[in-house]
Amino acid sequence: DLTNGSHDDVLNAEQLRKLLYLLESTEDPVIIERALVTLGNSAAFSANQVIIRELGGIPIVGSKINNPNHSIKEKALNALNNLSVNVENQIKIKIYINQVCEDVFAGPLNSAVQLAGLRLLTNMTVTNDHQHMLNNYITDLFHVLLTGNGSTKVDSSFLSLYDSHVAKEILLRVLTLFQNINNCLEKEGRLAVQPTFTKGSLFFLLYGEECAQKMRALLYHHDADVKEKVTIIPKS
């Protein structure tokens, strides 16, 4: 019943424990995939992110990224992606970063597994804690960005994440991303002069007038944490 869509959106601790036991004990690929989807959906809720970690669920989910079934691998990556929103969960998830990178670059370009892996890597590197783990993969990441399709590349719709109606948790994450990029450019001295960025690049979007307008609007956001983040980010 926990995997057929008839359950409530928010599972309790006992239901999550049963779901993890099911995921660990079965070899049926259909059940594994459905259980991963349910766990991934449940992990969208912050309370469940903590419960799943405390139940020892992260290594159970993480083990499924080794599965040769690409659909199961994708669902496991999606579940880890939602779990990775929690900073304490990231400490346990970081052991999978190297393998995720290898899978992202070894698999077919623009595949569901590649996109799921890139989403997880994005979440894991929003803060500075684990960015160093991608040092050896920068060339490969640029190759994917250059050769991938619209789902893989960054397009102008990315700026919609900076709108005031976006959920606070997402706003804080994209503002932190901007802050980290800005800090790196400052260290390189690139912001001392007016930099020129390639049109269509992430830098072009973030340092363009449209993004500057969105930043100015966020100064009047109702949430204090969002306003604090915006005040320490330069407005073009």
UniProtKB/TrEMBL annotation:
Membrane-topology annotation of the record: Single-pass membrane protein
Q: Where in the cell is it found?
A: Mitochondrion outer membrane
Q: Name the domain of life.
A: Eukaryota
Keywords attached to this Swiss-Prot or TrEMBL record, sorted alphabetically, are:
Membrane, Mitochondrion, Mitochondrion outer membrane, Transmembrane, Transmembrane helix
Q: Per the record's keyword annotation, is Translocase included, yes or no?
A: no
All copies of domain Armadillo repeat-containing, residue ranges: 11-154
| Biological process annotations from GO | negative regulation of intrinsic apoptotic signaling pathway by p53 class mediator
A single GO cellular-component term from the record reads: mitochondrial outer membrane
Keyword Translocase set for record:
no
Q: What is its main location?
A: mitochondrion
Q: Which PANTHER family match?
A: ARMADILLO REPEAT CONTAINING PROTEIN (PTHR15712), ARMADILLO REPEAT-CONTAINING PROTEIN 10 (PTHR15712:SF19)
Annotated protein name in UniProt:
Armadillo repeat-containing domain-containing protein
According to the entry, what is the taxonomic lineage of the organism?
Eukaryota, Metazoa, Chordata, Craniata, Vertebrata
